[in-house]
Design goal:
By secondary structure, this protein is of the alpha/beta class. It is 40% helix and 20% strand. It has a single domain, classed as Rossmann fold, CATH 3.40.50. Strand 1, helix 1 and strand 2 form a beta-alpha-beta unit.
């Protein structure tokens, strides 16, 4: 395993959404993993410390807002870049996500052609 590969965790309770993101990023130089809900994500984040988390907002057990708030309170986890990847695309949803600690926001359905570039930009964005 190459240590210079950026680690991306995809957190979404919808299997089709996770698979689409994994498929789009498959041929990139990222180390990809996924989680099925906020609880699963918390375990994987503590074990693996990803560089970037693509997080759905509406999930069972722990939603994306709550998980992001928890991560931002943890000294060794607060610098992980978290991007909301969500169908919450109503007026004010982006602002709410950013106010909750997300670094960025990508609305679903994702633009497949632009997605890779968006991820690259987020990984290169300073906190």
């Amino acid at each position: 395993m190459e240590t210079d590969k950026k680690k991306i965790l995809i957190v979404d309770d919808n299997a089709d959404s996770r698979e689409l993101v994994m498929k789009i990023l498959k041929n990139t130089n990222y180390q990809l993993s996924d989680a099925i809900d906020g609880e699963d994500a918390l375990n994987k984040i503590n074990a693996d410390k990803p560089d970037l988390i693509l997080m759905d907002i509406s999930m069972p057990k722990i939603d994306g807002y709550e998980l992001t708030r928890r991560l931002k309170k943890e000294k060794d986890l607060r610098d992980i870049k978290i991007i909301a990847l969500t169908a919450h695309a109503m007026k004010g949803d982006k602002e709410k996500a950013l106010a909750s600690g997300f670094l960025g926001y990508i609305a679903k359905p994702i633009n497949v052609r632009m997605f890779g570039e968006q991820i690259k930009n987020f990984l290169n964005t300073p906190e």
